[in-house]
Every structure is written in structure tokens, then in C-alpha cells.
Amino acid sequence: MIVDLIRDLRHGLRITARHPAFTAGVTAILALGIAANAATFSFLDALLLRPFPFPDLDRFVTVWETHPEAGRSSDYEAASGEGNPLASADYLDFRARGDLFDQLVAYRERQLIVRGPQGPEYVQSTLVTPDFFRALRAGPAIGRVFSPEEARPGRDGVVVVSHGFWQRYFGADPAVLSRSLELDGRTCTVVGVMPPTFNFPLGGVDLWAPLTLTEEERGQRDRLSLLVLARLKPGVTLARARVEMNALAGRLGAQYPRTNAGRGVSLVRLREQQFGVTAPFALVFQGAAAFVLLIACANVTGLFLTRATERGKEVAVRLALGAGRGRVVRQLLAENLLPALLGGACALWLAQLGVDLIRTNLSPGIAMWMAGWNNIHLERRALLFTTAVALLAGIASGMAPAWRASRTDLLDALKEDDRGATTGPRTRRLRSFFVASQVALALVLLAGAVLMVRGFLDLIDLDQGFDPQNVMTMHLKLPRSKYPDPRRMAGFYDELLRDLESETALQSAGLVSQLPADLGPMPGGVFSIEGRPAASPAVQSAASFQSVSGGLFTSLRIPVLRGRPFDAADGPDSTPVALVSRSMARRFWPGEDPIGRRIKPGDSGASGPWFTIVGIVGDVKQYWFDREPRPTLYLPHLQRPEREMWLVIRSPAEEAAALSAVRKRVLDVDPDQPIDEIRSMSQVVSESTAIIRITAGFMVVLGVVAFVLALVGVYALTSYHVAQRRHEIAVRVALGAGHGDILRLVLGRIVRLTSIGLAAGLVGALAIGRLMSSLLFGIVHPDAASLALVTGALAAVALLAGYLPARRAARVDPLAALRHE
After folding, report:
1. How many CB atoms lie within 10 A of CB 464?
2. 592: number of Cβ within 10 Å
3. Core vs surface per residue 62-72: b (16+ CB within 10 A) or e
């Protein structure tokens, strides 16, 4: 068997070398189809299957607290009662369950201020329990990680820094150990540097410090402040852990009813954390790549079928001399596998180009939130996958032609006049099937690409409610140690805005607690309307809350539709006022004038003042996936100051000059206050839709490849069809058939096959459009105009591909053709 296989491969190499043009064509076609799948597999592998480089990744689960009313007293914003952090006392109780988890580690994210070469700057830090790195099986590149003793207050003045921070701040100094950092006025010693591949938690952590729990925190159950990660013991299933953890939560609820009543526990596999956003786009990538491979295989199958037809007499001789059909099929498959393997080798190079292109088109600000993004590359698993795809593509493309050739009619094939001897009805039907299939698959993929691009263009052309041009943004966070109360925070921001108003390089300046179009969490909650009865929890009024200055509406050119914006008189000692968005006014005061009405964040019995509505402003589209604008309540930053704010600057000056002016004014107010995340508003908008843009671009590339492959297939099989009927066409011309008659004869078949393919493709395109719409948050909207455009374009070019061989056939010289025959 092995000897026969080696002999078949050697014979296949001779056949391949004897037909270089055919081999090159098949290799190129399969390389395109395989490359698309190899590239998408690399993304799927890195983003979904192995997003974190931790051993036994499936045993890692995130632990969340659930409660219908949770999140209101949380250090972290939660969209609902699902997926909240844990209280520290609950974490310690859960940690005691040694029968379920190998480790249960906690961490808390904090932004600190460090003195850098350019002045104060923010660093993103994570406070972790000492066993954090050991639980993740992550070791340092330099130095060590934390010891258990360093979790005690007074011994926690040590930090482990990230590889990027080590390079940026310490200049990649190999003697970094024992060097000091001043963090929020406290001196800490560097004890280790993590490798560049370590990125947990997501978001670009600069350094890790020990998490110390005071005696008060160890008994605290009313403040949800700890993010928790667990490693399941071997043999413990996720289902069992969920049941037993919820039973424990129930017992804690009975023991501490004031804080824990109604609380539950949610366990989610770590690698599934980003499935909600990443998985739909990754699956669209892989589905589109699979369509390209199917088109390539259909194309190559047609070419192999053509070659098998031409070699009918050779196969018949082999069969007549006693070769079994299985032996013939194996030999023909061996010949077909060689171009497929060559295509796989070329595909690896093309796939690497594609991976590099996509990776470089996603900004670091978005990539740092995507687990596994920095680990996307072609490695051993991708090589094995590519080899497997190449083999499957070769077998799938070659099986039908090889089997058809092995069933050659010996009597017909051995006739001396072999014109059309092996082109029987079955062969013609099989070839016709592949032509129609290529057209159908190309239409489905092209329709998906056009719908994706149209959805993206509609998204960026949508009126967002503000003007991002010539606007810069930057982030400010006031340290609690220096600004412990709202009045001091309001004083800093008020003084800064007054200074910026006098800056000639700036046109206007404003503050907002959450940037429009940014993908960060939007604060929000329920509110009460004075004079209306309290609603049930299921129908409570809810809106997004924004603390802003009046200059925000000028800087972003958000129109004030009625009433007035905020001004300097709306201070902490004046009447509390508010603005509402147009969608909020329409929803909660339909047919009424909300100006003059009073509202309060929270229920009517909540502490805090009532705010009088003084104006209505235009709607702002906060997130690209929002189908409708979110009702938004705007409150003056002086009356409801936030520790973290975004400074929004409109300036006609150069970005560097404007930034220098702003930085100077900030340092004039507070020499220790840094600014960070400096971006243009256009960049904010662009980053928010980056994944849509990349998906649309990828779909366009695959659509073009599918388009070209389908046309090549139609052209090649039409040319062969014309060549097979050369003698018949010559006879027809000799008997008086005109130019138009021959064109109609040849094109008639192409029209029929194209029509069948387009009809099947339209059905598939509608199904794929609906599927993409449900997967991609409604971005894709199947519409008749787009489908008609794609169908018409594909039909026209397919007919052109068939017309060229038909025109050549119509100009045949009957005398020369019959003499040649």
C-alpha cells in the first residue's frame, strides 16, 4: 500500500511538472480560498478558543454577584443586577470553599498618579491578592511576584510592573529591581517585571500592587468592590460549582438578610467573557472565508473534471489493462492533492499578510480590551489547520472528477475518433452544477459584503447629534486624597474652565462625565418625576445621567432646542437645575412641556434635591449599536461633580498648540494633576466603530476574491465547453449558421446556468442577511436595492465571462476547424 502510494505521488509529480500552467492556476485558486480560512482560524483561535495564555484555561471562571437591586452601592458600574463585583466578606466566605476551587483570587482596579519625566501622569494599576499570579500560572520576566506577607498593611509597598511600563518609564533598565516609584504620594519598590504577553486584567495594566483588606473591609458586605477569578479543582464541573455556590449564597442571605438577601452567584468561564461582542464578528469572518473556499473548490473541481475528460483515453487504457477503479481513483487523487498542498503552502504566506494587515488597522486603545489580540499569529495549530484544509480541499475538489473518470465507458473512450467521447450527459450535468454553484456562492458572499459595507456607511453617516471636527478630548481624575469632597472637586473644575475661557488658542471648553460615542459604561438609573405616583420596579423611569458644564453643548455643537443651557450661575448653592434630551422629553412628557417640571435621580424617597428642568437639548447617539437615542438627563457639574471627567476642547489651532495650552492651564490650577487619554473626538468616533470597519473591509476583500474566482470558473468552463463543441460549431457555420446564431447557442447555456445560480444565491443571500442582522446588533439590513445591485452586477460580468469564448467560437473558420479535426 505504501509502495503504491509513493508510486502514485511520484507519477503525480511528473504530471504536475508536465502541465505548469494548469498547476499554477489550481494552486493560485486554492491558495486564495485556504488563506482566507487560515487567517480567520488564527483570529478564532486567539480570540475565542485561547484568549488568555493560561494553562487549563477552561478551569478558570469569573465569579459575579447577582441581585435585582445590586450595583447601586458598587465601586464598579453595573448595567443591571447581573455581573456585579463581590463584597469583600462574601469573597472570604467563598474562598473558604476549598472543595470547589484550587484558588479563588480577587483584584481591584485603580488609577494612580506617578511622577514621570514629563510631569505627573496616570498609571493603570490593579490591586491583587498575593496568589494572583500563581493562580494564573504566570511568572515574571524579571524578579519575582508577591509573597503572602506582602498582603498585610504596612508591608504592601511593592509593585510588579508591566513590560510596556518597564520600557516606557524605566527605559528597559535591567537593574530595575529595587527602584522606587512614587504612587499617589506613596513610595513603592519594584520587585518584578511581567513578560510582554501578560495582559490581565484587560485594559492595559501598567502595574500590579498587593491588595490589602483592613479589618473593617474583611467584615464588609454592603459594598461590592472585588472582582474575583477562580480556578476549578480537577474533576469539578461548572454546573456543580454553580449549584453549590448559589446554595452558599442562599445561606449567607439567611444569615445576613440586611445585605445578602436575594443575592446569587454567577460563574462564567473566563474565555467566554468577551464572546458577546467578539464571537459574532469572528463567526462572520469564518463563514465568509468558508464560502470563498467552497467557490475555490467548485472552481478547481470543474478544472479537474475538464482535465479528467481530456485524459479519458489514458484512463480507459489503464482500465483495459487491468487496473482497478480504486487504483485509478487513488492515482488521480494523488495528482490532485499536490496542487492543493502547494496552494496550502502559498496560503500560509497570504494568511500572514492578512493577519498583519488586520492587526495593524485596530488602534491600541481598542486592542488592549480584546483578550488574545496580541497573540494572533500563525503558529503550529494554524499550520496543522492549513494543512488539513489543503488536504480536504484537494480531496473534495478531486474526488468527483476522479470517480467520474474511473467510470469511463471503455468502448467509447477507445474509439479512434474521440471527440466528446468522455463528455457524456452526467459529466456535462456535473460541470453545469459547479458553474451554477460558483455563481450562487459568489452572490451570497457578495451580498453579505455589500450589506456589511452599507451598514457601516449608514452607521458613520448617521447623525450622531454632535460635531466631532476640530475637537480634542482628554481625561481627568481627581485623587481622593487631595479632593475628598464634592465642593473641592467642583472648585478645581470651575477654576480650570475659567482659565481655559481666557485662552486665545481655544474656541470653547466643556466637561462631561462620559464622552459621546465612547464605548465606556454610561452611568444611569431610575429617576422620579414630581407629582407622579411611584412606579413599580418593572416600569420605573430610567435614563442615562451625565454631569456636564454648559460649554459642552457649545464645544460639541449639541443644539439647545428649548430653554437655556447651564451657566456659571448654576453653582452648588443655587437652585438645582437639569436639562433633558429630546428623546427623554418625548418619552416621559408626550404632548407636554417638561420645562419647569422637577425630577430627582432615584425614587421619590431618595435623599437629594429635586432638579428643575430648564431646557431641552438634541439627542446624542452614545453607542453605535443603539437603535434609538438613549434618554439622557444632564446635570450641572457644579451641582453634581464627578471625580472623573472628560475635558472637551474645540480649537481651530494646531493640536500640539492647543494641547500645550490646556496642559499649562491644568498645571497652573494643580501642579500635581495629570491628564491622559488625549484623543481627537473624530478618533473617539473612529475607535468606537473600529471592529465594524475591519469586518466590513474583510468582507469586501473576500467578496472581491469570490467574485474573481466565480468569473474565472465561468470563463474556464465556458471556454472548455466551446472547445469541446468546436467541430459541431464548425459544421453549423459551414451549413449557414450566422454569428448571432452561434452566440445564442453558446450564451444560451450560460444564461440558463447563471439564472439557476442567481436564483439559488438570492435565497441564500436573504437568509445570510437575516442571520448577519441578528448576529451583528442590527447593523446589516437586507434590502431589495442592494440585492438587486449585486445580482445585476454578477449576472452582467458572468455573461461577459461567457461572451468572450462565445465570440471566439462565432468567428471560427469552418474549413480550418474541420481540417484540424
Report:
1. 20
2. 10
3. bbbbbbeebbe
Q: Are 464 and 685 in contact (CB under 8 A)?
A: yes
pLDDT in tens, 138-173: 999 999 999 988 888 888 889 999 999 999 889 899
Query: In the prediction, which pLDDT does 379 show?
Result: 76
**Whether pLDDT at 585 is above 70:** yes
* Pairing verdict, β 471-477 and 644-650: antiparallel
Dump pLDDT digits (tens) for 278-332.
Answer: 777 777 878 888 888 888 887 787 777 766 665 555 555 555 555 556 666 667 6
Q: Are 199 and 233 in contact (CB under 8 A)?
A: no
The C-alpha cell 418625576 sits at 529
Please report which confidence band the pLDDT of residue 445 belongs to, taking 50, 70 and 90 as the band edges. Answer: confident
- What's the farthest any 2 CA atoms get from each other in the chain? 107
Whether the upstream peptide bond of residue 533 has omega within 30° of 0, thus cis, is no
- Burial of residue 85 (CB within 10 Å: 0-12, 13-18, 19+) is buried
What ranges make up the beta strands (E) of 185-322? 186-193, 207-210, 224-232, 264-269
Is the pLDDT score of 566 beyond 80? yes
Query: Residue 297 half-sphere exposure, CB side, CA atoms within 13 Å?
Result: 22
How buried is residue 808: exposed, middle or buried, by Cβ count under 10 Å (0-12/13-18/19+)?
Answer: middle
Q: What span, in angstroms and rounded, lies between the C-alpha atoms of 211 and 128?
A: 5
Alpha-carbon torsion angle 669, 670, 673, 676, nearest 10: 20
By DSSP bridging, strand 207-210 and strand 119-128 are: parallel
Length of the chain: 821
Query: Is the CA virtual torsion 446, 447, 453, 457 positive or negative?
Result: positive
The per-residue pLDDT of the chain, averaged, comes to 81
Radius of gyration in angstroms for the set of CA atoms belonging to the chain, rounded to a whole number: 34
Chain position carrying cell 446554595: 247
Instruction: Report pLDDT digits (tens) over 75-106.
Output: 443 334 567 899 999 999 999 877 899 999 99
Residue 538 has pLDDT above 50, yes or no: no
Cβ 9 vs Cβ 338: under 8 Å: yes
Cα dihedral 446, 452, 453, 457 sign? positive
Residues whose CB falls within 8 Å of the CB of residue 762, separated by 6 or more in sequence, listed in order: 443, 787, 791
Helix, coil or strand: residue 597: coil
The DSSP letter of residue 57 is G
Give the DSSP letter of residue 538.
Answer: G
